[in-house]
Specification:
seven-stranded antiparallel beta sheet; mainly beta; disordered N terminus
Amino acid sequence: MLTRSLITRRASRDLVDAGTAERDYVLAHVVAQLHLATPEDGGQRSAGDVLHAGSRCTMGDVQRSGQLAATALLVVGLGTAGGAVSTAAHQASAKIVPAVSSVALAQPADSVAVADDHVLLVGEGCSSVEVNPATLEVRPVHGSCSGTTSVRTETVPGAPDVRLRVIRGFDVSLQAERVDPRTHRPVVGPVLMRLPDWSWIHSAGPVVGGGSIWIYGAGATPGPLLLELSARSGALEHRFVVNAGIDPLLVAGSNGAWITPGVFGGRQCDSTCRLYHVAPGVARVSIAMYSPGLGDEWLTQSGDTVVVDVVSRTSLGYVQSLKGLDVASGRPVFDTAARVVPGPTFAGYGYLVVSSSFGLVTLSELQPRARTPTTVSCANGAPVEVIRIDPATGAQSELAVLPERAVRRDCATVPLIAGQAVVYEDALYFLSDPTSVGHAPLSRLVRVRL
């Protein structure tokens, strides 16, 4: 058996109390021996009575079979010498404490992205740092944009040959810039669109997908405008007039671009939300879906499915519905009620859901009844949980609970917003710890191994 000191050390490392660490140690050994149990030994009885090393073990903390017999059980095991963690399958009803690490940032960051084999953080003044995913070692790098306060040249993730020039004056002008492969000098294209500064702040993009760069200008004239640029040259390919409101949601992939009204101010849809689609090579915009609602909290594409979270209001409060469409045919795939995702925020562009190999992932704080709140909410003091959304059905599950000291419970952190999180090699990286209450930039990078 483990000594008390080893249990205490393990509890400190995992940010749990010693009782939890000791219980998990017992559970790991119990589960390891379950396959040896027979009906004569009591293998058919409640999971509180099982065999361990040939003798019956009754655990005071496990009173009912539901805690062990649920279909998806995850047990954190302690080796007899304090060795490596062993993991069984998930238990849907368990509150799992995952492996969580974090690093304080000398320079606060606004966004996080994946670049080659590292995580890239971009902060104020175009400062950026690279983070080693294995060690969380931070290394400063050259800025990702340049210029004065009136002219900024920004990189476009996913389109390394093109940069975006944002020129601020009486209004905002946008140009694309590429590096000539022969002279290695920047070549600046014509002005793509002009719009008021406030409108640019509440626009969308750039996003890259299917060999194109997509940018939405909320206050462009004529407009609002959705631009399609070549991801290789930055040349304008198509210009579409699309009324998707302010702070719309925009995603793109090999099947074109999808854009829908967000939830800025509590309502961006005129009783009916429209999901617009621009297919590759088609010089027109189609409406892929009509849905009654106030606006959409988030929009993402996972594989062959586009998923949108539509917010509506009923006599009981706000409700959310996750709707999936097949990207090739446009046919509905599912329509699933929100169960454990965050409540509506109405804070601009909604909250962020990131895609991983095991589904869509976000952070949530659940109400006491473990349900999506029906009121506008952000940080409410409940445990912060990692939520998985099945992109094939819209079903949601509680993947893991974060240790209380691992993430600051603040409206700037929970729920996540655009740019605050990425998934890399099945670990979730997100920015936390606002430098001032309720506001970015954020001063800590948190890694959750899933």
